[in-house]
Amino acid sequence: MQVNPSFRLAYVPGVTPSKWARVWGERLPDVPLDLVAVPAADGERTLREGTADAGLVRLPVDRDVLSAIPLYTETTVVVFPKDHWLAAADEVALADLADDVVFHPLDDTLGWTDLPGRPAIERPATTADAIELVAANVGVLLVPQSLARLHHRRDLTYRTVADAPQSQIALSWPQEQTTDLVEEFIGIVRGRTVNSSRGRGATPADDPKKTAQPKKAAPPRKPQPQKSGQQKPRPKPKPAAAKRGKPKRRS
After folding, report:
1. Which residues of 148-172 are buried (b: 16+ CB within 10 A; e: fewer)?
2. Do 68 and 174 touch, CB atoms closer than 8 A?
């Protein structure tokens, strides 16, 4: 008994692959889509080791080994307790965090070169650990908005930080493993229709010689009456009616 192949798609925290998975199920119902959740720091390693056929990961990745198509850029926010003074602002700048302890977890996704604020005594192992410290009112944390939503707590809130670095989500896969199924998923994330996709779900184009319809001949035009060069004679004017006066009296 032959088992249908499956397609393994890895995704890092904060990424929601459900909309693409739904299209996959409609387009390739005979090929199971296996979603593989991986830690933020393991996206590239998962693809290198062949644990997944493709992945929704955060850039950068090694472009010498992996192909990548950037999909979207994430908004960066700062997470803090609801009673923090930052809650009064609609938007925060990095300079506003100068007096706060800013956590820098080991699985950071923003790639800081110069972290704002005051450094913590030690770096939390994960973003989840950093969130717990923020809830304890020890400091604040800068993360993509998707991660702030993922680790939502009632006692915490967040604000957009306009001048902070941003992370990018990309579809990535091993360069030497660009299979028909990978092409199919590329078509899905790029919004291609079934017939325009390059993968196995595409239907071959019909032979133009068979489908071309003969053009119908244009109906003949009705002959237009030719204008004569001679002018039509003008109608003779009708004689004017005689004026009737009063009869003269006889003498």
Report:
1. bebbeeeebbbbebeebeebbbbbb
2. no
Give the distance from CA 191 to its chain's centroid: 8
Burial of 93 (0-12, 13-18, 19+ CB in 10 A): middle
pLDDT of 34-58, one tens digit each?
999 999 889 999 999 999 999 999 9
Cα 229-234-238 angle, rounded to 5 deg: 170
Count other Cβ atoms within 10 Å, centred on residue 42. 16
pTM exceeds 0.85 for this model: no
Residue spans of the chain under pLDDT 50: 1-2, 197, 203-212, 214, 251
